[in-house]
Each structure stands twice: as structure tokens, then as C-alpha cells.
Amino acid sequence: MAPSCRSQNATSRKTRKNIEPEPEYDHSKDYTGEAPVKKKARANKVNKDAENITRALPKRRRLRGILQKVTETPLDVLFEIFSNLDPLDLLQLSRTSKDLRALLLQRSSTSVWKRARENVEGLPPLPDDLDEPKFAYLAFDKHCTNCLRATKFVQWEFRTKYCRKCLEASASGLFIRAVPDTFSGYVPMFEFRTADRKDPHRYYYVPAIKVLREESESLRDEMWDAWVSEKRAAYSTLQTNARLCEGWSTRCAKDRANELDILRDQRFEKVIERLTNLGWGEEMQTPNLIDELRYHRLVRQTRPLTERAWVTMSGTLIPILERHKADRLKRKMNIRVVERARLFASAYSDATRDVPLLPIFPKAVDAALLEPFSKIVFDTPLDQDITESLKAAGIRLPKAAAEWRKKQDSGLRALMEKAGLKPDLNLATAFFSCNYCRRVCQYPYVLAHRCKLSYSVSFYPEDWKTYALMYMCRETNVPWSASQYTVNGEILRRVQCIIQTCGLNPETATYEDMNSLDCRVICVNCSQFSTTEFVMQWQTAVQRHYDHSPARPNVWKLLDDAEGLKCVKALEKLDKRAGYVRYASESFLSQEKFICSHCKVLRCAGRDLEDHLFEVHNITRVSSDDWDWPVNMASCVDNGKGVSLHPHIEEKSIGSEENDNAKSTVDSNEAASADSEPHTAKANAN
Q1: What is the tens place of the pLDDT at every residue in 80-123?
Q2: In what order do the strands lie in the sheet with 175-176?
Q3: Alpha-helical regions (H) of 57-123
Q4: Vertex 152, ends 149 and 154: CA angle to 5°?
Q5: Which residue in 28, 74, 151, 228 could disulfide with 163, CB within 3.0 to 4.6 Å?
Q6: CA 106 to chain CA centroid, nearest Å
Q7: Which pLDDT band holds residue 59 (cuts at 50, 70, 90)?
Q8: 376 and 368 in contact (C-beta within 8 Å)?
Q9: 3-state SS, one letter per residue, for 195-212
Q10: What is the DSSP string of 157-180?
Q11: What is the DSSP letter of 395?
């Protein structure tokens, strides 16, 4: 007859009473798994009324622990259950109660630990100097032996587990950073690397050094070599096992990291799916947003995404999506604004390409503010094409340019009145100085002057028109404004002296009057220390440096020799040809605009000017009579820099030199612009 359940339970309870740890194999100090010490209940000081209320409350029945039934389970059943657990589970069970601790740490439970260890794939075999609980503690526990902080460090050679703070604490006396040379080859060592230093941190175990020192002191000389060999062999075995354990720990850490990454990715995909269902699918195509969501603290978690977690998370993620959406729309609008500005600048450049130099037309950034262009550029929705509208409005460009010139002329007249001059822009004294580049410009060429200044402005959707203008400024220089110029008193006095030197009245002489003289002036300052005379045109004399040519009548002298004037003009033509070759060959200079002498349109030096002369004027060879210097750029200081005239130079010698230089200039020009040969061949064919 089978025994009753009551008899079995009685037998089990009797067995539990007889279980005691074997004193010769007590593992209570082998790992930090001691059960926590029960703290004494803290007495609360209460008044009598509170005490009476407490006494009146009914006593609640104490709940039994989850593992309380374990003590009533037969040993063979318990061992079978424990054998299917992981070593870490056994460690944690041994810390739950004194009975389980006594049961799991006795010698007869070794087989349970062994079978649990064999359940772990890839775990190195048990070292000879460790027992099962200590090995399980080193391999699976995550807490420091000293301070119980979480740590990833395991000192396998020491058979200890200390965190970095405890390793570096000198008060413990367990570790040192250097070892005596006598034991340097067989003292256990632990090292780890950090990003702040190149060499690893090394720690040596002080208890091991003490044992070696005590053993070595009792050795005789003839026993020393054998003892050293024994210790070296033992340390080699210890190192081999330590490397195996470290390799297994590293692989486990990587596998665990991969598992956690998979869980985080699954949670992230669920978040993306929910956001897409809410209508944020277009934003999910933004890489920056995807990265921000992936590494967000609420998303980058290993726990599964629950409905409760999503409610908490959505209130934080939605504002992020709204911000990214606003940024995306802003970038999209920025692109459209830049395309609009480029389209207008390109269309305006094509429309004004064949416009003569005079009358001067505004630049693209100025024309964009004029009607009807401002309405087309700024009032038309950005998603509509304005190409046809700009073509239709092109016929109104001359009228708009005339209105622009009229407005700017009023600003310049106000500057002349402020300087005490007659507000007549046709006067030869109508010179204006740029406040930015200090360039001196004469009317009407001052309207074509632009300083190469750059503007930097942030893009705001509500103020995109300003950004479009600034973008065109970057492409075609800053807008023209009379406030950028002043009437310089030193320059005014210099112009008046030059006009008087040429024999005209500065109060009434006009620009046309001075040009009709076709005279040259001599700079006395430049000529007084040389055997030659420095001769220049009157506009060039105005550009001379302030300190070099002060505004005094005795500084300038009129070249009244007819033969000398012919020689100067011949030298100017030679200098002009050499300058063209330089401009056509240098890429950074070839963008300067030159004036076609035949139709007064502007073209760049080199291929641009040569194509124009051939296609429009049927000119195959560029000569100095076919173009003139630019008048609106800073480089126009090269315009007749002045020539040095020797008093005894003969015009005949200049003429022969001019022919030789003309031939060399043409050869250089052909080398700088290789595409001129097809023009010549085409002309010969005709």
C-alpha cells in the first residue's frame, strides 16, 4: 500500500531538520552571496491616541513566501529541478533562505552545480583551484565583491570580481600598480584599456605577492630554481584558463549586446509603424529624423512596446515630428526660392546681354524690385513657373530702366547739392567716391559700379523675399544705392585743378567738353625725379593716389606738344594690347566686361569678345581699336595707367615698335584663345 501524503510530508520535514552543511567543505566565503542580515525593527514614537487607533485595527494574515513550499519538496525532486537551472539561478536561490543556502552549498550538491554549469553552451571547464559556487559567481554574477556595484570586470587571474573604483582604491591594500622584479614573471595581473591613455591600466594582486614572498623566504638556494619553475608553470596554467574564461565572457557580452539590439530594433520598428499609421509616413523618409527616433531614450529600450508605453511616448515624439516637418517644408521652400532667384537672374542676363553700355541698365537685383518684375518674382506662387511671364514683361524693360535711372540720378544730385556743387550730372566734376571700395567713379558710369561684397542672411519662410534678394546679391553683387557714395572734397579739388590745367572752367565744363579736347596731362610729382615724363588721360589723373598727387595747380601740366601727343597715343595703344592679352589669359580676370567699340555692348575678354566681334561685326582679329577698357569694375584702374614719355623719343621708332608688338600681341592672343582659328578659316572661305 502506498504511503499517504501526510506520511511523505512528515518524512520530508524530518529530512530537512537533519540537513546541515559539512564543516570541512563550507563555501560560505567562496563568493559574495551571503544572505542579507535581518535588520532590527525600527520603533516608531507615537502618541497615545495613535497607539489606541493602531490597536483597534484588525491583524492581517501574513502572506507566505513564494519559495516556502520548497522546504516541503523531496530532495530528489529538488535536485532534479535545480539541475535544469542556470548557475546564476542557483546563486540567487542560495541567497533566498538559510535552508536553501545550506542545501546548495553542501558537498552532496556539487552534482547539481555541475549539471547546471553543463547547461551553459561554450563555458570553459571548471578550473582546478575553484569550486562550483565560486566559479558560478565569477562567471555569471554582475556585482563587485567589495561595494556590490554593477561591474563588467572579472579578475580571472586573481579569482576576484572588483569594479574599477575598488581597483583604484589604495585604502583596500589588495592591488598595486607595480610588482617586485623577483616575482614579475608569475604574479597574477589584471589590465584594461581606456580611451584617455595609450598604455593599459595594470593591477597586481597583493595577497598573491605576500604568499610568494613568504614561500621564497623559507627556501634554500638549491631549491630556488625548482620553486621558480613550479610557480612559472602554475602561473602559465592559470593564465591559460584565464584567457579561456575572458574569451567566453567577451563572446557572451557580444551575444547579449546583439540580443538587446534585436529587441531595440523590434521596438523601434513598432514605433515607426504606429507613426506611419498616424500619417507621418513622409517624415519617416528623412534620415536625420530616423536617427533621432532610433536613439531617443523612450524608443531605445529592450522592453516590448505596450499600449501604455505608446501613450506616454507619443506625447514626446509628436512634437519632434512636427519640428522635422517644419524643417523639411522650410528646406523645400528654400530650394524653390533659390530656383526662382536663379531663373530671374538668368532670364535678365539674357535679356540685357546685347544692351549697349549707355544708357546704363540696372543689375538683376535692382530690376527685381521694379515693376513689372517684382510682381512676377515675389507675388507669383513658388510652385508656378514664371519663364513665360518674364518673357512677356521683357518689352517693358527699357521703361523700367529709365525710371530706375531717374530715381538714382535724384540721389546723386542730392549728394552734389550737399557738397555745394551745382546739381548737374553732366558736369566734368561729377565724380563720386564709393564708401566701401574707395573707387572714384564718374557719372554715368557710377550707375554701373558694383562692389564685390557678400551678404549672409538666414532663410525664414515668412521673409523669403529678402532671402531671394540676398541670393541675387551673391550672384550679381549688392543693390545700387546713392547712399553708398559721397562727393569727396579732395577728389573734387583735384578734378577742378585738372580742368583748369586743360584750359576750361570747372564751373561750366562738361564731360563731353573734356573728352572733345583729347588732351593729356603730365604728373609733375612722378616726372621730377626721372628723365621721362609720366603722361595720362584726364580721367586717369583723377584716379591717382591722394598723397601722391595732391590737389594743387602746380602738380599737373598740360602736354601741349603735338608730336609728343602722337607718341603718347601710340604708347597707350601698345599698353592697351598688352593688357588685353593679360586679361584674356588669366581666368580670374577674363570675367571682366570689356566694351565693344562698334556697338558699345559689354563682353568678357577672350572668347566671349572675339565671338561677338566675329559674329556681329565680321572681325577675325581683335585689335585695340575694337574694344575699350571696362568702366565699372575695380580693375579699370588699368585703363591708361599712364605712359612714360622720353623727351627725345621719335614717333617713327614708336611706330616700328608698335608693329612688332602688334605681331607679338596677335600671336599671344592666338595662344590664349585657340578657338580663333576657325573664325579665320571661315573668313578665308568666304
Answers
A1: 999 999 999 999 999 888 888 998 999 889 999 999 999 998 99
A2: 175-176, 201-205, 189-192
A3: 75-83, 87-94, 98-104, 110-118
A4: 100
A5: 151
A6: 64
A7: low
A8: no
A9: CCCCCCEEEEEHHHHHHH
A10: TTTB---HHHHH-GGG-SEES---
A11: G
The answer to whether 548 and 525 have CB atoms below 8 angstroms apart is: yes
Locus of grid cell 569594479: 163
Count of CB atoms situated within 10 Å of the CB of 351: 18
Number of neighbours of residue 186 by Cβ within 10 angstroms? 21
DSSP 3-state assignment of 433? strand
Q: Which amino acid is at 396?
A: R
d(CA 655, CA 670): 22
List C-alpha distances in Å: 226 to 208, 212, 238: 19, 14, 18
Q: Which residue has the cell 570541512?
A: 24
CA nearest to 564, candidates 500, 656, 647, 467:
647
pTM: 0.57
Collapsing DSSP to helix, strand or coil, 413 comes out as: helix
Return the closest-CA partner of residue 533 out of 643, 640, 645, 641. 645
Listed residue (667, 674, 668) closest to 607, CA to CA:
674
The mean pLDDT value for 195-202 works out to 74
Distance of alpha carbon 83 from alpha carbon 76, whole angstroms: 11
* pLDDT tens digits for range 559-589: 888 888 888 888 877 777 776 676 666 554 4
Of 111, 106, 116, 126, the residue nearest 27 (C-alpha)? 106
414's grid cell? 542730392
Q: The dihedral of CA 213, 215, 221, 226: what is its sign?
A: negative
CA distance 366 to 478: 9
Q: What angle do CA 474, 478, 480 make, to 5 degrees?
A: 155
Residue type, 673: S
Alpha-carbon gap, residue 641 to 544, rounded angstroms: 9
Tell me: the pLDDT tens digits for 235-274?
899 999 999 999 999 999 999 999 999 999 999 999 999 9
Question: In this structure, what are the phi and psi dihedrals at residue 175, rounded to the nearest 5 degrees?
Answer: -135, 145
Q: Structural domain boundaries of the chain? A: 69-141, 319-487, 561-686
What is the CB-side half-sphere exposure of residue 103 using CA atoms within 13 A?
24
